[in-house]
Amino acid sequence: MAPGQKMYPRATVKKIVKAHSNCNLSKNVDVMIFLDYALFMQNLMKEATIGAKQGGERGITARSVRKATADSLAKFKG
Predict the structure, then answer these.
(1) Any idea which GO molecular function terms this record carries (predicted)?
(2) d(C-alpha 37, C-alpha 17), whole Å
């Protein structure tokens, strides 16, 4: 990624979250949402990798990700 290039449009994320929550948002709520998403994806891939290795698969497949999704979503439920 080039220097100065944004990973996501901050204003758009804030507008979407505000429209769905009808609450006041703090200044850096979009950063927190992005970091939570990145942490969730990291956890999901870790769990999928563990499940794939235990299942004797050579690599991560869509099936191993689907199996790990429920557990990861339960961990990140707010």
Answers:
(1) protein heterodimerization activity
(2) 14
